[in-house]
């Protein structure tokens, strides 16, 4: 891993193209460095001036008298290549290129970006951008950006770091975080990532002891495995990571591709990547910052057990809904404890939610006493309190704070959430006491639920997986021309396939049917017809010789009508499969993260339901069982309404096996879909009825 | 409908139990009436004092010298019955009872509440509460509440009315709405609704010309039909209605039942009620107020067509996702128009989203010019602009406002949304120009999407429905004892059922099977076994006489093992149904809103999928088609992957028919479930394979 400190915490900064107007573009950056208190030398470079904004200016980077950690290249795209070349030759350790008009702007721009990379090649100089809004570190006061984000002040040193693929998104997050009193300590807009990329930056921040919470904004990812490694590193070092990946919808994905010219891959794969690492995927700036606030300010919850308190029955109900919807657990208040609460507050309905009724407003210290009763002992990991606008009423605000602040100090191990509308001064008092404070109960519980999920998941190193069979190396998916080949490949992986016979004509089909025993299935064999059912290429439950001949004729006729271009290579005859549950099992190649394995309902239901679980390959049997358990189909597999349970163990083995094979074939970018995979009753295994193999 | 004006806009107010401490409970109400500027006489009633807070006090309500529109009964529950009695006898027109401890507090409380109602009976006096936090109308300055909600000031006269079943919820909404500059004009906490109820209050507000937006908070509804009528009235008069119904989750539903002691019914039915009337169902206070803000402040959108503008590619992508997720439509920018935009802003990517890139920050007037180009003509109903924190930077804030405010005036018919972080003064300037202003793009587009949906739906009077068959009156679901009866009933409604024969034993079953032709299905007949498959009571595909005997024996044995208590009344023999798509069609009785009809996937899939559409009964054929179209199953019914389309017309007729019958049997609270209903290919109708009838 390279040392990114010249970029992230530079000790000296040069500004190529420094301007004297402190209110605009390049001049703004120079003002930020001067006003913001950068703690090292700043060297403006401008061939036309000897002084810029009160600093001595130099004609070229070569003229700068001291060593330069970071050079800001603030010249137009056309001049940037020469400037980067000069910096690299002058021994600058890192350059930030602001200009747009490179890879994001078509073929000519891509060519220009290649020349930019060439200009630094071999010198070891780090290159951030082009098309970057810059970077800052609040500890070194290196405010290197042309955004207006510091026009109304400079940040305190916070505990949050951010890497963003959109400078506009990142500057908005910076500003709103600062306004909420949770400032960012380090921030990088990575632009076109021609050299330093998002994964490398996240890796550096993962190792930064001054950062507790990492924010990331993605549109597309250039190096999936490096990103996975960086995010895993951050999680293993206890950072809370909150990511926004834009382009959830098809239209959003197209817009993202236009914006960053990256291949986004399948959005669901990002869901799985984030889930597997215990990273919260947020959908908006607001949600990102809500979670960041509880992570920075609130106490980390030890678990999901939550007690709800409210003087309003209405909010007690609403908080119950939102707690459950966010995966939190609401253990009932023990009967003896309920009695003690009623002794304090006679009208209370203390089941959990604990509704203390409006009565409590006349004796607020009791609220703290009830909280004590609930948090003594180990029934709850956290308490969420609704106080609302009554907490800010001039007649009540101090009494509320007196009741709640002291109680917080008595339970330092419990996470405390407070929904209140009060003065900024009172909010600060609650926050200092350990409360995470929100106005809206819904956002409060969403953020708490996210933190609980993140805290519960430690991304352990993957368990050792059964190694792939060496023989598989020779089993090339690129050799599969049709269904018969595909089924043979699946069979060689150890997944049972229904024994079928390739027949050239009706006579051969009759012979084959007699051999395997009636009833049989008859199917067309053709590399041109991946979806046989659609063209009438399948006849099931064929009971005698005449019916076999009729089936072959019918298939010929229907295929000729539907797809006259398709070459019929023959007919497959197989015994009917019998009873079982139809599943879909597949592997495919994600352009960013490599092979993924997919399991879900099979047959017609597959597409109708979208009931799928997905993992990065490989998975072991335990991982496969977890996947199966995520689908709604699992209820059927476990034995629905007194039906016998299906052979879930054999199914899990098949899922794991196929996922291991996919990894050996990652280079081929192969895609295999077994659909339907019939899961028979427990002890009777699975059988692949149809398979499709394609190499990318 | 009763005249609620004595309660909603009283001309004189008496305060029973007036206290001299203006900071607490009853004293607070009196202070609000004095300080808040109520425009009529206020009469404190207190037998122990001659003066309270500077006003002359009276010993009893009978001593008050003038007529009293509203009396606030602010005495403990035990004393409230006598106070209400005295008020009623003194000719008071409306009484508000604050005290809790009535129907929400168990059997003794229910009894006390009954006496409260008795005390006013026959006098025509309106009774609000008990357990009410009060009511206010900002026009008459009648601030009748003991909540602290006016402790820091009194509201301007706004355009929003609210009815709330939770005083705490309502006071929070009041406060946050006022803080956001969209104050409420009228507000009622309806408490236990012993007399005046939520529906009656909403009806009155629907007729109030000073109210444009109606907010409602429900936990349970006492009179479903009255609520439907009131909400329909509000919608027909052009009000935007935003409702929160708490208790979405099972745990939330239990908490709501504890809180209000009402029967909530099925949460999904509320979804359908709100959807059908064009009412936005919000999930939180914040969402409720976001939608209220765009409804009160922004311009009403003429349709869903939206153009997105941003100087940040990142937000262009995010807004695209959120627009699509909220049902908005993003028509592409016409190529010629794209050219004209590029002529103004060379680096722009103007497809929709229109990404103007950071370049635009150096020439902000161009932003307004691009907006003009997009909004001239009829391609878009609305524009959503992201400006973000750059809009509030001291160096840019005025230039942004200059560019955008003038443009708004040039397009008065277009809805305009602006996401910006700027000073309160600038926000006011944008709002005055017609922009709905938000910080967060996600919340902005959620609120706009909600308003578009609401605006698009006018709850027309229901089309005339085919009247129910008079013969149905005699067709009593309470007469159905078992499946045979249930199928007969369904058949008499004109929905084909598979002809079956009731057989006493195996010999009779063989005769029946020969008559209808092999293969057949054999099923157990027993009123004790509503779910026959679960106990092994069904054998399908029975091919000959011996197999019929084997099936009867197997069923006897399995049923005896699984349910030894069940009485076997015989066996049903029916021909096998052949091919088709298995659906579920049912009607059931909602405790609040009466008969509802449900359609979805049938067989085992029914519960696995939860793929159901629901309507209040009755529906006509067009309504039934719309229901069918809401399910994922419709893709199968329309002909999936070259399969023939199913007989959707016959299916719709069956849905409509059953829903009409359910209305005639509403008194019986009947529930009928046809599962599976087999839908054959187009032209071949439907056939009920199994049915279950239960009377409530």
How do you describe this structure in short?
The structure is a homodimer of 696-residue chains. With 696 residues, the first copy, chain A, is α/β, with parallel strands linked by helices.
What does this structure look like?
The structure is a homodimer of 696-residue chains. Chain A has 696 residues and is of the alpha/beta class. Chain A has 5 domains: 1-134, Rossmann fold, CATH 3.40.50.720; 155-296, Rossmann fold (3-Layer(aba) Sandwich); 298-456, Succinyl-CoA synthetase domains (Rossmann fold, 3-Layer(aba) Sandwich); 499-575, ATP-grasp fold, A domain (Dna Ligase, domain 1); 581-694, ATP-grasp fold, B domain (D-amino Acid Aminotransferase, Chain A, domain 1), CATH 3.30.470.20. Helices cover 37% and strands 20% of the residues of chain A. A 7-stranded mixed β-sheet of chain A has the order 9-8-11-10-12-13-14, sandwiched between helices. A 6-stranded mixed β-sheet of chain A has the order 16-17-15-18-19-20, sandwiched between helices. In chain A, strands 25, 26, 27, 28, 29 and 30 form a 6-stranded antiparallel β-sheet that branches. In chain A, α3 runs parallel beside α4 (107-120) and α12 (335-344) packs antiparallel against α13 (365-375). The longest helix of chain A is centred in the C-terminal third of the chain and has 18 residues, at 545-562. Chain A is flat. The two termini of chain A are 32 Å apart. Chains A and B meet through α5, α8, α10, α11 and α16 of A and α5, α8, α10, α11 and α16 of B.
């Amino acid at each position: 891993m390279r040392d990114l400190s010249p970029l992230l915490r530079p000790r000296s900064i040069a500004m190529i193209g420094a301007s004297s107007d402190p209110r605009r573009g390049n001049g703004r950056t120079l003002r930020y460095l001067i006003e913001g208190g950068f703690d090292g030398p700043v060297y403006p470079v401008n061939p036309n001036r000897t002084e810029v904004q009160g600093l001595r200016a130099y004609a070229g980077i070569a003229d700068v008298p001291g060593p330069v950690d970071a050079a800001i290249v603030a010249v137009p795209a056309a001049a940037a290549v020469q400037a980067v070349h000069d910096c690299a030759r002058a021994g600058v350790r890192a350059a930030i290129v602001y200009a747009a008009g490179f890879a994001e702007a078509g073929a000519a721009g891509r060519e220009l970006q290649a020349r930019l990379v060439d200009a630094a090649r071999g010198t070891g100089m780090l290159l951030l951008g082009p098309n970057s809004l810059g970077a800052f570190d609040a500890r070194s006061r290196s405010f290197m950006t042309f955004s207006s984000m510091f026009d109304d002040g400079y940040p305190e040193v916070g505990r949050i770091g951010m890497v963003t693929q959109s400078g506009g998104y990142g500057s908005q997050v910076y500003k709103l975080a600062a306004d909420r009193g949770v400032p960012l300590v380090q921030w990088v807009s990575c632009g076109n990532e021609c050299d330093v990329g998002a994964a490398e930056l996240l890796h550096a921040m993962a190792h930064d002891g001054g950062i507790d919470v990492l924010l990331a904004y993605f549109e597309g990812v250039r190096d999936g495995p490096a990103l996975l490694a960086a995010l895993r590193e951050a999680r293993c070092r206890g950072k809370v990571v909150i990511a926004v990946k834009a382009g959830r919808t098809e239209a959003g994905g197209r817009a993202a591709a236009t914006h960053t010219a990256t291949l986004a891959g399948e959005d669901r794969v990002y869901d799985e990547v984030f889930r597997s690492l215990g990273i919260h995927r947020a959908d908006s700036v607001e949600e990102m910052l809500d979670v960041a606030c509880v992570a920075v300010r609130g106490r980390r919850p030890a678990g999901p057990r939550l007690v709800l308190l409210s003087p309003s029955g209405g909010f007690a109900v609403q908080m119950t809904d939102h707690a459950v919807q966010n995966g939190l657990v609401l253990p009932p208040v023990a009967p003896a404890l309920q009695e003690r609460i009623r002794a304090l507050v006679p009208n209370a309905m203390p089941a959990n939610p604990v509704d203390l009724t409006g009565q409590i407003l006349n004796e607020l210290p009791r609220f703290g006493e009830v909280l004590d009763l609930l948090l003594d002992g180990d029934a709850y990991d956290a308490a969420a309190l609704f106080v609302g606008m009554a907490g800010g009423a001039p007649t009540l605000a101090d009494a509320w704070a007196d009741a709640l602040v002291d109680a917080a100090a008595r339970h330092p191990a419990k996470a405390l959430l407070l929904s209140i509308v009060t003065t900024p001064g009172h909010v600060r008092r609650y926050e200092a006491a350990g409360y995470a404070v929100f106005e809206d109960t819904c956002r409060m519980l969403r953020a708490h639920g996210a933190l609980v999920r993140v805290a519960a998941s430690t991304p352990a190193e993957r368990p050792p997986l059964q190694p792939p069979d060496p023989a598989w190396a020779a089993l090339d998916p690129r050799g599969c021309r049709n269904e018969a080949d595909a089924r043979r490949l699946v069979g060689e992986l150890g997944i049972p396939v229904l024994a079928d016979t390739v027949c050239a004509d009706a006579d051969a089909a009759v012979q084959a049917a007699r051999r395997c025993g009636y009833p049989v299935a008859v199917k067309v064999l053709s590399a041109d017809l991946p979806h046989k059912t659609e063209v009438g290429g399948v006849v099931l439950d064929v009971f005698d010789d005449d019916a076999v001949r009729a089936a072959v004729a019918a298939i010929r006729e229907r295929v000729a009508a539907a797809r006259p271009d398709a070459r019929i290579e023959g007919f497959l005859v197989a015994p009917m499969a019998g009873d079982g549950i139809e599943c879909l099992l597949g592997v495919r190649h994600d352009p960013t993260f490599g092979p993924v394995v997919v399991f879900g309902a099979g047959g017609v239901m597959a597409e109708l339901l979208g009931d799928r679980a997905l993992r990065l390959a490989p998975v072991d049997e335990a991982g496969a069982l977890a996947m199966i358990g995520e689908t709604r189909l699992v209820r059927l597999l476990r034995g629905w309404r007194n039906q016998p349970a299906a052979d879930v163990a054999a199914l899990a083995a098949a899922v794991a096996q196929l996922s291991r094979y996919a990894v050996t074939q990652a280079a081929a970018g192969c895609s295999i879909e077994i659909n339907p995979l019939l899961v028979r009753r427990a002890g009777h295994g699975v059988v692949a009825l149809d398979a499709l193999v394609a190499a990318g």
